[in-house]
Each structure stands twice: as C-alpha cells, then as structure tokens.
Design goal:
Radius of gyration: 27 Å
Number of helices: 8
Strand order of the largest sheet: 3-8-9
Distance between the termini: 65 Å
Structural class: mainly alpha
Number of strands: 9
Number of domains: 3
Strand content: 5-15%
Helix content: 40-55%
Shape: elongated
Length: 253
Amino acid sequence: MGDFNETLDLSEHSHLDGQPAVTDGMRDFQSVVNYCSFADLAAHGPLFTWSNKRVNDLISKKLDRVMVNDSWLLSFPTSYSVFEAGGCSDHMRCRIELTAGAGTPCSRQKPFKFVNAITSLPEFKPFVSEAWRATEPLHMSTSTLYRFSKKLKALKLGLRQLAKNKMGDLIKKSKEAYEELCKRQEQTLLFPSPQAMNAETVAYERWERVVSLKEKYLKQRSKLHWLQVGDKTTKLFTEQCSNVRQIILFGRF
C-alpha cells in the first residue's frame, strides 16, 4: 500500500482526453501487477487520490492504492481500504479496516480455482459471452493485456456461482441419478411401455451426464495422468489395470 507514483489505467487520470497514451511507467506497473496476480483491495472514497493543487490546469490522478493477493483475501475476507482527505498533503491518506466490525464473524472464502469440467455445461459459453459483452471492450493498445486481465477477473464471481449451482456435490448427485436409473429400469421391466422406456432413457442420459462431470472433476483434483485412459474410475477398471501390469512385469504379455 502507499504512493506508487504511477497510474494503472488511463481512466485514473482526470485529463483522460488529453492523455491518451500509455506511458512506459504504466506498462511496467501493469506488468508487475499481472505477474504477481495483484488486485486492488475494495476501497471507499474518491477515485483520484492525488492533486497538483493548481487553480489553472488542475490535474488529479490515482497514485495511491492498496494491492492484495488471494492469500490476503483468504486471511482477511472482509477487509477494505478507506481513502480520506489528508489536510495539508496533496495525497489522500489511507487506512485499512481488517474486519467489518466488532463481533462480526469473518467467513473464509476459498481462493478461486477454475474447474475444467464447467466447460462441458451448456450454460458455460452463453454465460461467458454475455459477461464479456457486458464489460469494457478491448482495443488494440499498450494497455490491452491489463484490460484483458481485468475482464478475466470479473468472470470469477459468476463462474464460481455457476459451478456451485450446476456442479455442487457431484458425488451425491451421481448417486441419486444412479438410483433413479435403476428404479426406471425396474419399472420398464415390470410394466413395459413406450412411456416407461422414455423415462428410462431420460434417467440414463442424466446419470451419464452427471458421472461424466464427476469424472472430470475428480480427475482434475487427483492430477493423476493415468486417469486419461480411465473408465469412469470404477473398481473393475482398476483391477484390470493391475492384472495387465502384473502380466507385463512377469513377461507373460
């Protein structure tokens, strides 16, 4: 935290129309922020934190900021910064509030992790497309990479909620889908009819979809390369792999 003596974005300059160029200092600052995965801590107060105090040709910039990473947000999830007038200084003074107030419980939020299986959901592409159009458009310039990183960070909250709604507790959902499939199969055999067969088909498709998501999710968590040739990680497949490995080791293959 403090005076970085440089802006991150063109919008952080009061003379935006007269200062269209991105300086070398801005590019270096943006590069460091992207490399270290820093983000501005939530802040209260004016956007601009410095002024040249000139009656004629007044210029204001955001030179002071508080930057944090995921580890900070995990330890202090309710923290925020406050920028307020500093009296005789040409800079705003800043203070950091670590908690929301006395007696307020702090809920620890886990760092964002992209779940690869979410790309299999039919809602994924429309959501990303809509969120991308809703944020500031990208134009080819020296600050494009920084703006691109801001658009990606803006997707975090929505993707976290989408994963929670559609992929929460996949193990429980796969078990329920399997039980429903078995129930529909019995109904088809007890009372054969086109309606019963359609219900069984729907149950099978749901089970297949949920199991596929669960397999992709567990594969990412386990980070085991041999799962690339897995068969829904069943016990039978594991035993067959073990038998083949023994045959190869003893030269019987």
